[in-house]
Amino acid sequence: MFAPTLAGMADRRHLAAPHLGLSVHINEIVELMERQAVTDAILVGHSYGGMVIAGTGGMIPGRIGRLCYVDGLLPRSGQSAFDLIPLMKEHFGQSPPGLPWMSSPVDPALFGVDDESDRRWLEERVTPVPRRTVEEALPAVDDAAREAIPSAYVHCAGLPFLNETAELAARRGMRVITLEGIGHLAMVTHPQVLARELLTLARPVGSPV
């Protein structure tokens, strides 16, 4: 199991730079999988991570057994996070131009985190968002090959943030799992519920669920 930290984020925030964007993150995951000779992988991407696994799936579909979007963005080639979520552009677009990063939301309650201890934990760890990650469009990849990979969408329905994306996933024939009453940061607020659903999705394709 690999849980890589993307360049420019969290403990790798010191790598934030003007050139650092979505294509860099996609290439990081592709290179990791090729270097480690990973095959039949289950790629899980949360939120912006949906952009990353979509790009990875389009570049090396033969190495991937399943894609799992956890309340994630669901792009096709040529679409950026800003294109998919205009509200994100309204929020982050106010940050000073010319900087390689944008300030992250300061109030975790915006994403459904109500517990005070959880909020403090997040506030102590949140880092700025590299600007180009949300501005850069998904590079030209093989959308058809990616969408042929068995895929699932875990929708955190406690907030309306990605309701339309979950509907899009259903229209594309993806299996949609709805977590009622759970906000965008399910891994913080309801880790056991999310873990249970992900373990179910990790079963071989075609096995009983």
Automatic annotation (TrEMBL):
InterPro entries according to UniProt: AB_hydrolase_1, AB_hydrolase_fold
Molecular function terms, GO-annotated: catalytic activity
Residue ranges occupied by any AB hydrolase-1 domain in the UniProt entry: 3-196
Pfam families: Abhydrolase_6 (PF12697)
Domain of life assignment: Bacteria
Protein's name according to its UniProt entry: Esterase
